[in-house]
Write a structure and sequence with these properties.
With 512 residues, the chain is of the alpha/beta class. The chain has 4 domains: 275 residues, Aldolase class I (TIM Barrel, Alpha-Beta Barrel), CATH 3.20.20.70; 29 residues, no CATH class; 49 residues; 113 residues, Alpha-isopropylmalate synthase LeuA, regulatory domain (Double Stranded RNA Binding Domain, 2-Layer Sandwich). Helix content is 41%, strand content 21%. The strands form 4 sheets. It has an 8-stranded parallel β-barrel with strand order 1-2-3-4-5-6-7-8, surrounded by 7 helices. It has a 3-stranded antiparallel sheet with strand order 12-13-14. Strands 15-16-17 form a 3-stranded antiparallel sheet. A hairpin with a 2-residue loop joins strand 16 and strand 17. The chain is globular, with a radius of gyration of 24 Å. The two termini are 30 Å apart. The structure holds manganese (II) ion. The site of manganese (II) ion (MN) has 6 residues, from loops. Manganese (II) ion (MN) binds next to loops.
């Protein structure tokens, strides 16, 4: 049985999902959970992209202890220097350099010859090896590269010192048979390839990212790259939870497994969904809300008689627990702290104070507080940062025959107050217009969604908004027992992100 290493790029390729912007605290929280899940390598970002990205990579590198932390870099010295600056304090660090190899990219994008591409790739790997033990080289658009030329590139970067060679299907174009064949061919054609890790990286444009990743494993890949919930550029990346469960469930066939702690999958999926605002569809394999629901009478009857009639995996395997009610009004700080540890938080004392205060406030509004409530609450309270505005109060006058009017009171970072009122086409619209006036920000609301965190009439509502201002595209999140308050909180948190991003223009973007 082979063990396939998992390279998670939720924080890099996943963050390239339109509208997804994770701040440093959010990235750290996801990274620590990925480490618990058993990911081998965590790609924390692209350090040269912006000062904010560099800070996030550095902070993930400081907090993560067992997993290897990776930064992406183009094959140029300046990017590699930034990656080193971000990763110098990591326990285990890996540089990830890339250069496109396909004819279409060489001719139209790079305007470079085959020889020039090899030369630049080799130079980048050699330069990276000065600072890093682990250097991964990605042949961008390997999927559409001539096999003999690809073999030449792979041979050259291995000789230059690459320890991992990644052959991505950058555009999600190949069929499983073709993609698996690339790995077979490289194994046959490149002497010394057994000394390095061979990695696959697939996109889901034709819905084949997971199938292609599994085909690559059959062809000889020893590392799989992907994201939690399959988020990422365009149609997304290979969903790592699907790859892991396919290998686990069909190890008789694949003769391969991962080091994943499968019981952490549900929590990781929920955390990534919540912090990115990318809601998991009900019919999504493995982690969708309906993935384990049996609707047809015949199926229900079968499952009751013998679960394996229609169930190839069960919900407990990946850590979905039967709904249990936990804490309430009478629970003390100690019980709350234990619960947080149980749920996987690594909070500092003052963060626990903030979370406990919010928990007590919630207990006043809600009799029974479930794990999901606590998760939503703590994520909302702890992981935000750099607040230019904080929502103090929101008031609304509403009648079905009159125009709703909202007034809001915001506190600026310097302690001064911004108070404004506005009417609007609906309750939420009037609140948002009042917030626009109070903050003086001109933004466009491009998405607004409400999700109920738990069931029942006193359930917590979670609101996701996506705002744009020029090139800036951010999402915000708010949680409350009242959906209008949650709406206001989400909007203010998104405006705070707009202000942060405006102060830090993006220097470069990269795609692999
Ligand atoms: Mn990619």
């Amino acid at each position: 049985m082979r063990t396939i290493e998992i390279f998670d790029t939720t924080l890099r390729d996943g963050e390239q999902t339109p509208g997804v912007n994770l701040n440093t605290n959010e990235k750290v929280e996801i990274a620590l959970q990925l480490e618990k899940l058993g990911v081998t390598r965590i790609e924390a970002g692209f350090a040269a992209a912006s000062p904010g990205d560099l800070r996030s990579v550095a902070e993930v590198a400081r907090r993560v202890k067992t997993a290897t932390v990776v930064s992406l870099a183009r094959s140029v010295q300046g990017d590699i220097d930034k990656a080193y600056e971000a990763l110098r304090n990591a326990e285990n660090a890996c540089l990830h350099v890339f250069l496109a190899t396909s004819p279409i990219h060489r001719q139209h994008k790079l305007k470079m010859t085959k020889e020039q591409v090899v030369e630049q790739a080799v130079a980048a790997v050699k330069y990276g090896k000065k600072y890093f033990d682990q250097v991964e080289f990605s042949a961008e658009d390997a999927g559409r590269t001539e096999l003999d030329y690809l073999a030449e590139v792979v041979k050259a970067v291995i000789e230059a010192g690459a320890s991992i060679v990644n052959l991505p299907d950058t555009v999600g174009y190949l069929s499983p048979k073709e993609y698996g064949n690339i790995f077979r061919e490289m194994t046959l054609r490149v002497p010394g390839i057994e000394k390095v890790k061979l990695s696959c990286h697939c996109h889901d444009d034709l819905g084949m990212a997971v199938a292609n990743s599994l085909a690559a494993i059959e062809g000889g890949a020893t590392q799989v790259e992907g994201t939690i919930n399959g988020i990422g550029e365009r149609a997304g990346n290979a969903a790592l939870e699907e790859v892991a469960l396919a290998l686990e469930t069909r190890k008789d066939f694949y003769q391969a497994t991962t080091a994943f702690n499968l019981k952490e999958i549900a929590r990781t999926s929920q955390l990534v969904s919540r912090l990115t605002g990318m809601i998991v569809p009900g019919n999504k394999a493995i982690v969708g809300g309906n993935a384990f629901a049996h609707e047809s009478g015949i199926h229900q009857d079968g499952v009751l008689k013998e679960a394996t009639t229609y169930e190839i995996i069960n919900a407990e395997t990946i850590g979905f627990k039967p709904k249990q009610l936990v804490l309430g009004k009478l629970s003390g700080r100690h019980a709350f702290k234990d619960k947080l540890a149980d749920l996987g938080y690594h909070l500092e004392a003052e963060e626990i104070d903030v979370a406990f205060k919010a928990f007590k406030e919630l207990c006043d509004k809600k009799k029974e507080v479930s794990d999901e409530d606590i998760l939503a609450l703590v994520d909302a309270k702890i992981v935000h940062e750099a607040e230019s505005f904080k929502l103090d109060t929101v008031q609304l006058s509403y009648g079905n025959t009159t125009m709703p009017t909202a007034s809001v009171r915001l506190i600026r970072a310097d302690g001064t107050v911004a108070e404004e009122a506005s009417c609007g086409n609906g309750s939420v619209d009037s609140i948002y217009k009042a917030i626009d006036r109070a903050t003086g920000e001109e933004v466009t609301l491009v998405d607004y969604r409400i999700v109920s965190v738990t069931h029942g009439k006193d359930a917590l509502g979670e609101v996701f908004v996506r705002l744009q201002q020029g090139d800036i595209d951010v999402q915000g999140r708010g949680v409350s027992t009242d959906v209008l308050e949650a709406s206001a909180l989400a909007y203010v948190s998104a405006i705070n992100k707009v202000i942060v991003r405006r102060g830090e223009p993006v220097i470069a973007t990269a795609k692999v």
